[in-house]
Amino acid sequence: MAEAVILLAVKKIGVALGNDAINQATSKFKKFVTQLTELQGSMGRIKRELRLIHQFLSRMDVRNRNNETYEIWVEEARMMAHGIEDIVDEYLQLVTHKHDTRWSTYVKKGFMRANILLSLNKIASASKDAETNLVHLFQAKDRWVLMEGSGSTTSNDSSNYIVERSQHLASISRSLGEEDLVGVNRNREKLEEWLSDESSECSMITLHGMGGLGKTALAANAYRREKEKFQCHAWVSISQSYSIKDVLKCLITELSSNAEKRTWDNINNMDTEGLREELKRFLTHKKCLIVLDDVWTSEAINDLLGSLVCNLKGSRILVTTRVNDVAHLAFPNRRITLEPLYEKESHELFCRTAFPRDSNHECAAELSHLIDQIVSKCKGVPLAIVSVGRLVFVRDKTKEELRRIHDQLDWELVNNPSLEHVRSILYLSYIYLPTQLKSCFLYCSLFPEDHLLKRKALIRWWIAEGFISNRGRSTMEEVAEGYLQELVNRNMLQLIDRNSFGRIKSFRMHDIMHELAVDLCQRECFGVAYNGNDRHWEYEDRNERRLVIHKLSKDIDQAISCTLSLRSVIVLDNSMASSSSILRIVADKCRYMSVLELSGLPINMVPDAIGDLFNLHHLGLRGSNIKLLPKSIEKLTNLLTLDLFRSGIQELPRGIVKLKKLRHLFAEKQNDRHRRLFRWCTGVSIPKGLENLTNLQSLQALESQDESIRCLGELRQMRGLRLWNVKANHCEYLCESLLRMKFLSYLSITASDEDDVLHLDGLNPLPPSLHKLRLSGRLADSMLGAESPLFQADAGGQNLYSLRLFWSQLRKDPLPSLSRLLNLTELHFTRAYSGDKLVFLTGWFPKLKILRLRDLPNLKRMEIQQGAMASLERLRLINLSSMEEVPLGIEFIMPLKYLSFEEITLDFLQSLRQSKIGNMRWWHTLQQEIDMEPTVGLGRRMSCF
Ligand SMILES: *[C@@H]1O[C@H](CO)[C@@H](O)[C@H](O)[C@H]1NC(C)=O
Ligand SMILES: *[C@@H]1O[C@H](CO)[C@@H](O)[C@H](O)[C@H]1NC(C)=O
Ligand SMILES: *[C@@H]1O[C@H](CO)[C@@H](O)[C@H](O)[C@H]1NC(C)=O
Ligand SMILES: *[C@@H]1O[C@H](CO)[C@@H](O)[C@H](O)[C@H]1NC(C)=O
Ligand SMILES: *[C@@H]1O[C@H](CO)[C@@H](O)[C@H](O)[C@H]1NC(C)=O
User: Does the keyword section mention Isomerase (predicted)?
Assistant: First the structure.
């Protein structure tokens, strides 16, 4: 542990010694070169020392868990790393912060200089101390931590330890008996069928899922039953730090012991090649069953497959893994994904374990409620259920005792020695994470149980926290998305939803994983969650760096002000009006703050003091009431994200263009919650200097003006751009600018009024990575003609996934043209078409998942032929006031995940009920209801059939 913290300190020093900071420091401290050089030298040495400690920690970690001597040492190391982070931040502030000009007119120059020197000296001496302490700490480890045979601590030892540890755990899983398998019948049958079918080809079968779901237990069960049907069989635990040689040896020994009764005297003297040959010779003639348990990398399999020649004897290789990539080495019809148990199965398994002697394992009725509660905490993870069940088995089965167990379960999961193996199984996943992923993982656990995390927001936070570094030509956002993918791939995070074209959209952390991660977070002082009723706040001298507030309470102000070293505050609770004081307190008290996420809070004003948070990387005020920002915002030169999306913002200070590191700027005011008005939002204008924000990747949204449209083309990094108020005479420059944005992936353009025509013919070719396009305003019919950039052969719109047309008022049926966009997954029309008929022909829109048609006042008839929109999942028809008959052929696309007819008349409802889909599932709202209750969100009043 503490690796993550130390790595962050190392990165921070990297910033302080980077070119930017060095240049600024050199110009600011021209007169004090000696002191400066000395300080920089000291920081460089600290960095080296920290890296050594980091390296040492990443080797030691596993073995010494729970060793007190070691833990104390690690604690020291972590505290020092935090102290060093403070020193470096102090230094960065001194170097990069612009002192208020107001101030300097009052204070004489000489005094200023003396003052700065004083600060510099103070920092230098703190740095010297830190350096000495670090050296001392590193030596102390030789005296205390490594007393026993410090010479022999090669990395072999610790990997042996991991191997031992995982084998121990595997043996626990294997020992789970028949009675511990519940709710797996289907999987067991499948597995047995695949193992025993007649096919003579050698095939690979994979079992995968997160730790604790019972992969090994299931494999062991099948192995026990089926192995005798094979001529030879072997079970080998791989684990991450496997050595190919050892695995080969194990395989040969096991296979031969049950087949040939032959002993291998010389196996220890063979080299890897020899072993491979031996295994190959063996396998060529026999039908074998091989289980490779707990495989972490696909390389491990590929290494082995080299020797596992595929004979035609009907051999089977069964692999268990937590990693999706590994699972994908088997054919899709030979993979089993384990899921958590359902409630009923969980209950059954629990009772079997806790009350094994009772007939039918039934538990007393008066306990059943408590048992339900206990079981629900285990979230369907069999390992946890069985372990907690055994815990209950050895205790009194009284109501009081069960309640105590229930109340303490979180604590027990983290602390009870008899649950150690539950912890270890999940802990193992954590230990195997590369250090840079550890911080990202811990971060997710600061959010409440079951909290739905969103990809984009989380990635911006990770970057602002400094967890992500550039890698090659990838942006930090791309690297971060890779990390996220990796965590999902390792089953550390559960994927909940993808967007219509397959990118991760939302995910959450599994509960039990969450519980353990929370414990790790606390031990590392990585961060804490605050939920309003934590009594420890008052008296503890806290050193946490991150605070995620799940629930606000009155003493939150105090909580924040007694945690001065805070770097991040994220507030998830927007229920309390008084929460608006948070921003003021933070601005006054937390000088090093780097991530401030207050989205959704009813904040009206940003205090001037915000400008003093020189370290601020992220400021999130989405959905607030803020109309204006103070001028001091221009001092936040480290800001990466400024989020005022859907707030009351009307104008940005001119100095905004001084924030050259800004990557994501969201500033948009929402005028109409129902999004029916043509101009339901307004953006912000940036009349001068926009071209200086060259790092911008998101700009949402800009009010178009001659000047800003012309210089937009300088923003080459742009990924997501939203423009309001585009006039006909802007279009030419706009297209020119857009053509220069090679990475543009989301583009939204709204004309200045509903009759202005958008001329976008000049946007040719379309930016190659443009995936989402939203156009609002009259379109010339040529936009859908043969010459339109959408349909050009080379790039064209083939990469478009999502197209939304608003107020285009097309007279010609757009579908025949648009059907050429084969990759489209989402299509939306609002007042886009003024004709009376839409027909979807067979084969059109093969990948379309979402279709929304709204406010097409003349549309009378809609027809869907069989085989059109074959992948459709969601269809919404809203306010199609002229439509009198149920869309023809709608039954061909049923069933859908979601189908709704909104703002319809009673007559139309009647027709629907009598139509072919009358007794299927769909939703509706009536016109009148909207009229009567204009403030209710559209989706809420729906009823279901
Ligand atoms: C902790 O580690 C030290 C040194 O490595 C060793 O001497 C000591 O016995 C360990 N303590 C425990 C409880 O394992
Ligand atoms: C680990 O052990 C193997 C022999 O088992 C040896 O060849 C290798 O050099 C060792 N690695 C280290 C880092 O000591
Ligand atoms: C843009 O940057 C250039 C060079 O960095 C600077 O000279 C210019 O004043 C900046 N423009 C604005 C409006 O800040
Ligand atoms: C879009 O579709 C074309 C043809 O169906 C295909 O070749 C191309 O790879 C697709 N592009 C993307 C980004 O999926
Ligand atoms: C529904 O469409 C009609 C035009 O057909 C329009 O006048 C009306 O405003 C629309 N309803 C809403 C709620 O926008």
Answer: no
Amino acid letter, 196: S
Ligand closest to CA 163: 2
Q: What is the predicted pLDDT for the residue at 355?
A: 79
Rounded CA gap, 238 and 476, in Å? 34
In this predicted structure, which of 38-52, 109-123, 836-850 has the lowest mean pLDDT? 109-123
Question: How far is the CA of 281 from the CAs of 288, 499, 674, in angstroms?
Answer: 13, 50, 72
If you take atom 13 of ligand 1, which residue's CA is the nearest one?
Answer: 67
823 lines ligand 4 (CB under 6 A): yes
Residue 667 is predicted with a pLDDT of 95
What CA–CA distance (Å, rounded) separates 885 from 186? 45
pLDDT at 583: 85
> Comparing C-alpha atoms, which of 100, 96, 124, 123 is closest to residue 112?
100
3-state SS of 180-243 is HCCCCHHHHHHHHHHHHCCCCCCEEEEEECCCCCCHHHHHHHHHHHHHHHCCEEEEEECCCCCC
Using DSSP's 3-state secondary structure scheme, residue 916 falls into: coil
The residues with which 748 forms a beta bridge, in sequence order, are: 722, 774
Give 436-523's CATH code, choosing from 1.10.60.30, 3.10.50.40, 1.10.260.40, 1.10.10.10.
1.10.10.10
Neighbours of 106 (CB within 10 A): 8
User: CATH second-level architecture of 157-337?
Assistant: 3-Layer(aba) Sandwich (3.40)
Look up residue 339 and give its amino acid.
Answer: E
Name the residue at shortest CA distance from atom 5 of ligand 3. 692
805: CA distance to ligand 4 center in Å?
22
Asked whether 349 and 183 are in contact (CB, 8 A), the reply is: yes
* pLDDT at res. 95: 84
Question: Who contacts 888 (Cβ-Cβ below 8 Å, separation ≥6)?
Answer: 861, 862, 863, 864
pLDDT above 50: residue 837: yes
* Ordered DSSP codes for 838-904: EEE-TT-STT--EEEEE--TT--EEEE-TTSSTT--EEEEE--TT--SPPBTGGGG-S-SEEEEEEE
Going by pLDDT thresholds of 50, 70 and 90, the confidence category of residue 306 is low
Dihedral over Cα of 829, 832, 836, 841: its sign: negative
Cβ-based neighbour number of residue 939 at 10 Å: 11
CA angle 379, 381, 383 (to 5 degrees): 140
Specify the residue for token string 């008022």: 809
pLDDT tens, residue by residue, 373-390: 888 877 778 877 877 777
Q: Ligand 1 centre from 513 Cα, in Å?
A: 28
What is the overall mean pLDDT for the chain?
A: 81
Distance (Å, rounded) from C-alpha 180 to C-alpha 137? 48
Shortest-distance atom of ligand 2 to CA 156: 1
Cβ atoms 523, 544 nearer than 8 A: no
Mapping DSSP to helix (H, G, I), strand (E, B) and coil, where does residue 496 land?
Answer: strand
Q: Is the CB of 155 under 6 A from ligand 2?
A: yes
Ordered alpha helix ranges (H), 227-297: 244-259, 272-284
Identify residue 609 by its one-letter amino acid code: A
Q: Considering only CA atoms, which of 465, 427, 384 is closest in space to residue 180? A: 384
Q: What are φ and ψ of residue 343, in 5° steps?
A: -55, -45
The neighbour count for residue 613, using CB atoms within 10 Å, is: 23
Distance CA 578, CA 574 (A): 10
